[in-house]
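Slide 14.
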Amino acid sequence: MSQTQSVNQSNGRKVMAVASWAIGVIFLLLGLLGAIADPQAGSIILGLGLLLGGLAILPPFVRRARERLPFMKPFWVPPLLSFIVLFATMLVSAPLLAAADAASPEGQARIEAQKVADAEKRVTEIAEIEALIAVGTVESTRQALSKLGAGRFKDDVAEGGGLRDLLERANTAAEVAKVRGEANGYMARLNEALPKVEAIFTGRPETELAIAANLETMDATARLLGDGEKFADDAEVRPLMNKLRQTLSQKQIAAFPHMRSGYGTIKDAAVWENDMDITVQGGGNRTIRFIAGIFAANRNIAEFERTVRPMLSQLRYKRTQYEWYRGSEYTYYTLETPADGEIGYWTGSNFTPVPPVP
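Slide 15: predicted structure.
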């Protein structure tokens, strides 16, 4: 071992000895002063623990212990033993000190003051919950139920508890708020749909795109009105539904005859090169005629009808007629389509009516 290492070890032992003396003396003094100043069961035990912890780390005690007890020889054993003694005495003395404090006049006064503070806090919290229920929004009732769900109210909101009625009122208010929120959201959708319905083109369309836009608006609005069945009794929703329904029906009555006529003209121009003529006739333009040589064969008629039936149904034609030349014998199909003013939506060739709210 070098001289430098020997000096370093000597200095380290001196530092540890000084630290052990300082810590041990401090523990001894604290233990004596604590036990003398407050001679309660818990204080005496804690004082004894400090005394023992201090002795366990004092150099004279450590030297003697190491002479008699081999397990004390490692340098880390005395500090660990001191810590174990202190920790054990703290565990034992803590409940005793707490009980003694609670039994003292000062402790009783603190307990009574805390009870008063808890009672005042409870009154304040219940008043806050009442106010949140009175506001009646989804968020406020959610907050009210959250406060009532806190652990301190567990027994109060149980069956037969003092706040059970408050909990039931909060649940009722939350349900009402939820329905009201859904109704408000539905009214917003109705208000958004009205300008779109008012913008439905009622003139003669010149493109299929214009026809498709009208049909899409009509279908979406009918589905929206169908969604409102559960709000039919709501005094705020009902007038908006009736207004939207009336506007849509009027627009359909005005638009469909022109849409059928325009559709026939557009398609006639598109199939002219294929030697086919398409004309629209009848009251309200509800009969569409297809004239071409291919319709001399019944198979061609049936296949063509299956292809065009969904679109013709949505345009609410009443009859399709097939001729293989003008004035020839013809085959016709009757389409079971609703009146122009009837509200509903289509799934393929199937129409689902949306009746007015009762």
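Speaker note: The first strand starts at residue 277 and ends at 281.
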